[in-house]
Design a protein that fits this description.
The protein contains 31 helices and 23 strands. With 821 residues, it is of the alpha/beta class. The protein is globular.
Length: 821
Amino acid sequence: MMPKIFISHSPLDKNIAHRVVSYLESNGQRCWITPRDVPDNTDPADAIIDAIDSASWMILVLSEHSNNSPQVRRELERAVSKGITIIPLIIETVELAKWMQYYISAHQWFDVTSVSLEKKLSELLDLFETDKDVSTDLSSLTDDLDKLSLALDTAEEETAHLLPGEKRKVTVLNIHTELSKSDLPGSARQSISKTIDNLVDRYLKAYNGYLDSRNKETCRCVFGLEHAREDDTRRAVRCGIRLFNGFSELNSVLRQKNFTVNFGLGIASGSIEVEQTGKDHPESSGEPFATAETLSKAASNELLSTKSVYKVSKDQFIWEKHSKDIYRIADYSIAGPETKTLSIRSLFVGRDKELSTLKELLARQKQGTDKNRRDKAKHLVLGIKGEAGIGKSRLVHEFTGKNCQSEEILLLKGQSLSYAQPPYWLWTTLLRNLLNIELGSSISYDQFLTRLSKMSHDEKLIKSAPFLAELLSIKSCDKRLEQLDNKAIALEKKIAVRTLFQALSTNKQMVVILEDLHWIDSTDKEMLEFVVGNCDTDMPVAFLLLYRPERKDGSRVEFKIHPNYAEREEIQIVEVDDKACATLAQELLKAISETSMGKIAPDAEQFLLDHSQGNPFFLEELVLDLVESKTLASQENEWIFTKSLKEIFVPESLTDLLQSRLDRLPETWKDLLQFSSVLGMEFQLKLLNMLTERISATGNVITGLNGLENKQMLLCERSAFANKYLFRHILVHDTAYSNILEENLQKLHKAAAESIEELFTGDKEEISGILCYHYEKAAVIPKAIEWGMKALKIAVKNYSNEEALNLSDKLENWLGNNPET
């Protein structure tokens, strides 16, 4: 039977450590302690690694000795990397080393310096007894794994094979897995295998890898098989890092039932050759396959690579020496920014002046600014104003993509919501983006704190962490949240965000991008003004604020930012000139034809310039519309009109132009776009799947989404566990939504509300206003009242006065018309 509790201690504290073991084992708990449990003729280091990997808990006997013990540090590092819960048992008062603070700050402490050891151990027993054995709760395990497997959103895709005799230089990623329990029931084993298969499939799709072979314990993946690219090796490593984190997440579920998946990842590069074997498909072979397989079997829940892989990717990842010519990844927390980068096909033109302004802002930030009244840096606030479709987000996307990719620059991004915006939504989106926490992920406070600690070890930040967690509806059980009134908690949340900015800007330039501020509510606006006016840093923070000139009610977008604490500027994005538009049209047509042919007949070019009137988004949509309708076609290396100019109709507004493109979509794609629009500007694939199942929609969802992505209606953020889609532009979303028939609208909003309730079980409080909105649109008033009451309570609690007044008016009306409710 595998150990449940690993005891980490300094040899000088062995007497107390053995008292802990004696007490726990006499009460039915399994423990592992060195040197007692190291088998004969076994390397102690190997035994310790095996014991930690199979443990559910680690008790750290914390003293001055363990605080300075290299062995204890290695044990804690291993436990943290495996997601094992650490319980510090403090036996004497000690000033913790910084590394010790980092590893144990997120965990519950048991202090025995002033009470008896046995009393605290009895409290520990209550904690351990909640960890049920697998034999008593297999059904919940299967349910958890099924949910995790469904979240992967796998899809069938065509694969390509090399021709017999062809040679190619590739990078091979080999994955070796085996279960720690051989007597696992078939249903649970099947769920685990399904999850592993889906996990591998999802990562390979995200990183354009090829599944060369798969059996019970091994998957062999090849990068560079279909098309050789310069980044084959780096993509393989990123895929391996994602797989490591995916397996760790899987083990966090399995470990609660006292078993794990042992895994190893091996990467090698070199030449392979395809041989004709007489089978339906030729088989490939070569030294990289054997080397990657050997490494994966030698790896103990880690990623190992050859020296050649290390050399190519050493600047992108953090490695450490494992053995001769073998390296292991030392940091698995890399975010993989390419999974968050949206693909924008058209060329960016005509914004040289605006780009120069942004570059100058970055240079001024690095050089420093004047001091504020507290002798700290004045922050830099740049408002970027422009009408819908003029290119505000595109400008910032281009600027950050080319100028903010250095490790010395930290990007933070938040966005306002156009409807039913919960309090602090702008800042919760920023936090979720920073810590990579998807809405609905339901992570624990310990997991939240671990992610936060990776960003900064600042003591003030850790102290403020419960209030940051409260923004995300993550319960910390911090007593201050019970003792303080709502007004004090609201202030603490502001202070926590300020502290986060101060901690993150210590060693980096920080650029904060806040989008769609024409929809900002009072809580978010007050938070922004508080942070800018009260965040004292040595280096100024650069705030990029994106908004339209007017809010929904016609008022101007304004912020109270005092000149003593920030330097504020504003630029207005206007139409681009004809030369830039002509270049944009040419490059777009090159992309459409997938050739270097972008020459446009003079009359066609002038027609495009006259009708787009300097609006890049209108020009792009007009070109796409004309090409899709075969009005603009390539003949003899030139794009010409197939009709006379008098016969060509161009809608006057962007909305009408988009409507023209939507009307030509296949019916199932058009339906899918409309279904998606009910979920908002962005949505998770698994949420859309749930909605389409509820309404019994026809058509393949993945095929439709791929088609809409190719048509530039949707953009996709691909990640390992769940793809997220975004409408390319708010006008695309609004046009699709306005096309929904009235008789279908209520049905769709009802399906959306029910899907959100089912998927985001842990975040219902945070999104109660959104659920109220959907049930209102669905005309399910009792449910709208139920969620509206919860949203009102939250709005009042957070002093979100606009939202509170709006909700109270609605609730009064609903209750007056529905006395039974």
